[in-house]
Amino acid sequence: MKGEESTMKEKEIYFSVLLVAVSIIIVLAKLVLEEVWLIPKRIRSVLEKQGITGPKPSFPYGNISEMQRIQIQSQSHSDESPSTSLSFSDPWLHSLFPYFNKWKQHYGPIYMYSTGIKQHLYIGKPELIKELKLIKSLDLGRPTHLAKTLKALLGTGILGSNGPEWSFQRNLIAPEFFLTKVKKMVGFMEESTMTMIRTWERRIIEFQREGGKEIAEMVIDDDLKALTADVISKACFGSSYDKGNQIFAKLATMQTALAKPSVLFGFLSLRSRFLPTKANKDIGKLKEEVETLILKAINDRVVENQKGSGNQNQKDFLQVILENAATTFGNKHEEMKRFIVDNCKTIYFAGAESVSIAATWTMMLLASHPQWQQRVRSEILDTYGNIMSPNCFHDMGKFRNLKTLTMVIQESLRLYSPAVAASREALGEIKLREFVVPKGINIWLFIPELHRDAEIWGPDANEFNPERFANGVSEACKYPQVYIPFGLGSRTCLGQTFAMVQLKIIISLLLSNFSFSLSPNYRHSPVYNLLLMPKYGVKLIVSRVQNVQA
């Protein structure tokens, strides 16, 4: 009897376990079915009923195969003969994301497409972009798939967070980039730029000694990257800025590893996402090294503060964020460290890399348009006289008088905005004029296309014409809401003021010391590398400016 009872109990246990397992499988199957099939189908159905169409997806990969095929075809054509001209209608524009251009021709300025389970909505209609910019709701945020895939680079800082967490970080960080705070960083900007200028002067002298003229051919990209990294390092870490420069170098390497359309649109393969490939191991190692350096800087500052040996009145970004984080997180040390580390990484990527790229493109355009180069140089000398005097840029009244320079920078950001795409995810249902945008859709704006649309900017949309900004952005074009070099809406770049001030200082000092022309060896080939970068670098002929005012 006991044996039979034991056998019955074993069978009961077996069937119970089997029932639980089957139940779990059914629940998981329902979840997978919902995630993979029903939700995407529901999203597409909502858009289709409103007249929004697009390329037909195939299960389970959506339009990925078509996107890859179009990209390969476009790449093969653009690689055949990189342009040596500055015709802004060159193929590079639509070689970045060629499927955007092809689908726009077929389906108009609004269409939908799919990358696996992710559904996307392309918007190129100015009226809708205007509405998008006005949305303040937390239901419109950063695409979650993008935040996850770029987590090694940006962490969960302000660029990678949504909802209340993003709002909290924004309120904490935004005041540190108001003009009153940026003015305190002007000294760093001047100092670092003058260091680079002295390096360039030595290169010209060395070239002359070798039998050349008083000129030098330079690829300016790396020097400008080192300059902006130096500035943000000093502004961020103060006396520990040497650690900042190491951090920036490692983040730049990580950026290159992550700069793929598959990352941007969320169609990473299983292998590239999860398996321990060499690329994934390298990214993981860089992430650990960056975080170790930041934590070392944090710990050093904490020790300095405890000993009273540090200058707590210097109020660099690290000091401010430490104080705010201590107040906010209290004894939650791990959360506090994560918050500081992630936002330091964000400041580096957004504050150094994008500014250096903007400066590089602006110098390229000035080198290829000598009349505008001279106009800006004359304005600088008329405003400041002896540009070499220390702290000359602290006078914000004079700084605001650099109107021609401002126009040039704005036009450069129009033609060569470092940001290539603006993206949002509908975290809840939102309304865009006559359209209802369902929860879960990823919204995309292709910035180069918007910034060169002849219907918006006029027949000279592909030409370098800073005069269009003579009366500000609001008068520069038919729909000024499409001018979005710093993003749009409530998530507009917090460092916009910092970037514009730094760009003006860098360009003012460079033009007051040097004259620039485009090298005959320059190859014009902008490419996507998370930001818009010159594939072969920007090569300029640099010479000393004659008769600079004493």
Automatic annotation (TrEMBL):
Note the superkingdom of the native organism. Answer: Eukaryota
What is the protein name given in its UniProt record?
Answer: Uncharacterized protein
